[in-house]
Amino acid sequence: MDGADEGSGTSVIGSGANIKGTFASIGSLHISGHLKGKVSVEGEVSLSTEAVVEADIRAGMITLGGHLKGNLTAPGDVSLPAQSLVEGNVHARSVAALGTIKGNIVAADKVELGPEARVEGDITCTKLVVAEGAVFCGQSLMGGAALEGRQTPRGAKPQVGGTERHD
Questions:
Q1: DSSP 14-65
Q2: How confident is the model at residue 166 (pLDDT cuts 50, 70, 90)?
Q3: Whole-Å CA distances, 150 to 111, 146, 153, 155
């Protein structure tokens, strides 16, 4: 592989693999195994339903089918299918959730909670769609003022697009 292509493909952490440490790539990453550490990927990160991850994940886009204990940060979209579980905060352009999130969500655009979604935390966004059957336990703050930090749930200042929040 020459230097121009190095790292720009899709890396795979397969089923049965157990990785500890930091993973960084300009490509994409698919996780089916276990990962503990930190992930920074310019492309897309996807977790299969078998994946168990204890890490903060920063990627262009994220599709999470498994269990994550850590924070998600993406300048793009985050998708959480029905069997997914996130124990941490989610920061993205938009979030589509059918799974469970135990943490706060901050989206520059829209948050959609599908009929199987469960959210235990605050949501800050410009548009919020909650389907019949979804469960949301927290406060919501919508509109431009919310994202500019003029008003926030419980006094916390939301941050979007690659910044981390330390409470």
A1: -TT-EEEEEEEESSEEEE-SEEEEEEEEEEEEEE-TT-EEEEEEEEEEEEE-
A2: very low
A3: 20, 6, 11, 10
Q: Please list the residues that pair with 30 across neighbouring strands.
A: 12, 46
- Residue 65 has a CB neighbour count (10 Å cut-off) of 21
Q: What are phi and psi of 18, to 5 degrees?
A: -135, 105
Does residue 144 or residue 107 have the better pLDDT? 107
pLDDT at 150 over 50: no
Distance CA 59, CA 74 (A): 5
Q: pLDDT tens across 4-20, in order?
A: 334 478 999 999 999 99
Structure token pair of residue 24: 């960084």
SS (H, E, C) 133-153: CCEEECCEEECHHHHCCCCCH
**Per-residue pLDDT tens over the stretch 16-43:** 999 999 999 999 999 999 999 999 999 9
CA–CA distance from 107 to each of 26, 152, 161 (Å)? 23, 13, 9
Q: CA-CA distance, 89 to 159, in Å (whole number)? A: 11
Query: Nearest-CA neighbor of 84 among 99, 70, 68?
Result: 99
